[in-house]
Specification:
310 residues, mainly alpha, 12 helices, globular, fatty acid biosynthesis
Length: 310
């Protein structure tokens, strides 16, 4: 079991809410059986000229500053989602008697942008996650505070960008409305709740955020590339794979939350916000049910009906 320093647990009291949560470095981390990894340690040296971090990514405080913004504007996600839930039916009503916009090229570029963005995010989070886990054990990123584990450097920046990207991903719905496509419950519920949760988890610097961001980057890099190919008239045959990956993401997310919840009660000085974990588990459970229903409707019931027609 990992042994954590005495300053590992973050003070989440209201008195320090408006302060940047910085922590003194442990003088001799090896005495605790682990070493806080650096992102560049996770990459082979020969890859650095190709996928190494840019100068703007080499920041020790970028995520901390983004976190301060989230705490200061904690209400922003609620306002945006409130407007989003009003805008969707309003937009559908406005478009009801209008001709649908084609938007083929903008949609293709949008999906390609999100695919590239997600793939880049994966390159900035997955190597660090794997390196830290293999070096320090499976509980390191579950319990080690964000400021020491992945906050400084490229990984922290891209976890922060992941959170902020949930705002721009609402544009997905705008494309559906303008093209007069169905905006089902799974779509708008997923977009709304994931933004609310990510904004809250980011403000509280949940240690397991790196797991959630990495998984989402991985799945979205594949999903949006699938959408890109479909939007340019080359719809792949591996749509089922995308849905399976989405379901797997929910199951892994629930597992990570359960491990973190258990670690908070068994690992001394394990960091984390319990109320945030409860929200995460409920969110992943809801997504699992909804994506499972989509899977059955699309590939089981729908597939059976298609086979009968043929």
């Amino acid at each position: 079991m990992i042994e954590l320093p005495f300053d590992n647990i973050m003070d989440r009291s209201p008195e320090v809410w408006t302060q940047m949560w910085t922590r003194e470095e442990v003088i001799n981390q090896s005495s605790y059986g682990f070493t806080d990894p650096l992102y560049t340690e996770a990459l082979p040296e020969w890859t650095m000229p190709y996928i190494g971090p840019a100068a703007w990514e080499d920041s020790e405080t970028a995520l901390a500053k983004m976190t301060m913004f989230m705490r200061h504007y904690w209400w922003l996600s609620y306002v945006v989602i409130g407007l989003y839930l009003i805008a969707v039916p309003t937009g559908q009503h406005v478009m009801k008697n209008r001709q649908a916009f084609k938007l083929k090229k903008p949609l293709a570029l949008w999906n390609l942008f999100l695919a590239v963005f997600s793939f880049t995010g994966m390159l900035r989070t997955l190597p660090h996650l794997l390196n830290g886990t293999f070096t320090n054990g499976p509980l390191y990123f579950v319990c080690r505070n964000v400021g020491a584990s992945y906050g400084p450097g490229p990984t922290g920046i891209w976890v922060g960008l992941f959170i902020f990207s949930k705002y721009i991903e609402l544009t997905d719905t705008a494309f559906l409305v303008l093209r007069k496509r169905n905006v089902n419950f799974l779509h708008w519920f997923h977009h709304a709740t994931v933004l609310l949760y990510c904004w809250h988890a980011g403000a509280y610097e949940q240690p397991t955020g790196i797991f959630f961001a990495t998984m989402n980057y991985m799945v979205h890099s594949i999903m949006y590339f699938y959408y890109f190919l479909s939007s340019v008239g080359h719809k792949p045959r591996w749509g089922l794979t995308v849905t399976i990956l989405q379901i797997a993401q929910m199951l892994i997310g629930m597992f990570v939350v359960a491990i973190h919840y258990y670690a908070l009660r068994t690992v001394p000085r394990c960091d984390g916000a319990t109320q945030d974990l409860s929200a995460a588990f409920l969110m992943y459970t809801a997504y699992l049910i909804l994506f499972a229903q989509f899977f059955v409707g699309r590939y089981v019931s729908g597939g059976s009906k298609k086979a009968k027609k043929e």
